[in-house]
Amino acid sequence: MTIADLPWWITLPAGLLLIVGALLTLVGSIGMLRLSHFYARMHPPSMGNTLGTGCVLLASMLISSGLASRPVIHEILITVFIVTTSPMTAMLLMRAAVHRSGARAQRQLVMRQD
């Protein structure tokens, strides 16, 4: 079976998932550019990355399963890693920024006391 031979009930949801994934990733990228504060900028790319990649991987699973005429679930492992690591990375970056801003505020306080 080739891609041209795929039935409509596979290509339609896969196409919609690809469009939704692309839009989510675009919205996350625009959010990162438009928001001014670091903490506000962390959320849109994290969500866009996680949800957008999830939609693209679901579309890939549908098309691969249709081409192989059997369930193909290799992408589930990729999805688990992305869904797990992306929010954790965002949280670690935010905690580092909080720690850094706290240390900076403490240095300024010490300078004012001297």
Characteristic key phrases:
single chain; 114 residues; mainly alpha; 3 helices
How would you summarize this macromolecular structure in one to three sentences?
By secondary structure, this protein is mainly α. The protein is 85% helix and 0% strand.
Topology diagram in text:
Layout: H1 8-34, H2 38-68, H3 75-113
Helix pairs in contact: 1-2, 2-3
Describe the overall structure.
Helices cover 85% and strands 0% of the residues. It contains three helices and no strands. The chain has helices at 8-34, 38-68, 75-113. The longest helix is centred in the C-terminal third of the chain and has 39 residues, at 75-113. The chain is elongated and about 75 Å long. The model has no long low-confidence stretch (mean pLDDT 83).
Level of helix content?
A: over 70%
Task: Domain count, please report it.
Answer: 1
Q: Low-confidence segments, ≥5 residues, pLDDT <50?
A: none
Return the structural class.
mainly alpha
Number of strands: 0
Rounded to the nearest angstrom, the radius of gyration is: 21 Å
- N-to-C SSE string, H for helix and E for strand: HHH
Question: Termini, distance in Å?
Answer: 77 Å
Average pLDDT number: 83
Number of helices: 3
What coarse outline follows from CA principal-axis ratios? elongated
Strand content: under 5%
Characterize the main sheet. Answer: none
